[in-house]
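Lab notebook, bench 4. Still working through the backlog of constructs that have no structural model yet. Next entry is a single chain of 389 residues. Request: give me the structure tokens for it.
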Amino acid sequence: MFNIALFGPPGAGKGTQSKLLIDKYNLAYISTGDILREEMAQGTVLGQKAQAVIERGELVSDDIIVQIIEKKIQTNPEVNGFLFDGFPRTVIQAYILEGLLLKMNTSLSCMISLEVPEDELMKRMLERAKKENRSDDTRDVIQNRLKEYKHKTIPVANFYAEKGIYFKINGVGTVEEVFKRITTTIEQTLTKEWLNVVLFGPPGSGKDTQGRMLAEKHNLIYISAGSQLYEEIDKGTEMGRKAKSYIEKGDIVPDEYAIRVIERQIKTHPNARGFFFKGFPKTIVQAYILDGLLRKMNSTVSCVFNLHIPTLESIKRLTARAQTENKRPYDESIDTVVRRMEQFEERTKPVLDYYRKQKPIYDINGLGTKEEVFQRLSDKLELAFRKLR
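Model written out:
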């Protein structure tokens, strides 16, 4: 999900640019003033509460503001993201937005600030007041509004600058010129965002083969905790020796080993476009760990692919592989194969339910030739990336 906060003083052109951005990126527009008026016009419970506050001459509380924003987000599930116009206005609201988006398993992608000199803003607003016959918009009133904007929003700008997602845009020029500057910055921001894919599937479904091919085609870093642990085993490291005993029995390796090799892989590719996780997470706890690890790096899981084949087909493939040079230690014993299938059913399948509630999941038929399955996966992955962008 792609979320933008559009900032700028009164008269900077936020309204005009918002409409263009909404159309281009399929975003839902969130302006606290507009949605407050909608709620009041519709006579909703929240609208009635807000109206009572306004009629008393008081400011609508952040508690009410966050409720109407959350409602707006929940009633727009088909959009690619949200455009926040003039929100957050304070550091407190910035923290509120962080928490709200975290609850929705997303985050703010960037804050765009339209920068226009004060004399130009004054000129624009006086002209607008004249056209719209707004006698209350005098020079003194406008100056006070601009002063208040600066006073309240500089701390907010600093908040997002520290996160590295605050961008100043020259707001002087034609509508088209300003829009091009904004979209250029947005596209640059998008290329910096990681695209993280999790590939699921039962043992024998072909995850390793397909994962490597997909990662290479789409320029993602392939991460297989299993492959990394096998390297540790081959090297005879302490971690490898400990992991080997679990793998030989068909059990899931303790989280501390898996997460160490995954974090190491991520840190060695700081300029990656994204990561392709094969066979991880295998448990709900590991899903929490991966979420935490990526969140620590200002990222998240983008989408999940579920490569499914019948259980009997899994067993047939694993026993057939045991007769080849590509056999794994756990392929040779039917008891170990069955143990792995049980582990998948009991501990890994629930992870799909966890992700279905919060991430796009693509179910892919894993039967057919290697090329046929790869084409299905690749087509869906390209579709997923277009939606995420």
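Notes after review: The chain has a mean pLDDT of 86. The chain has two domains: 4-192, 195-388. Flag for follow-up if needed.
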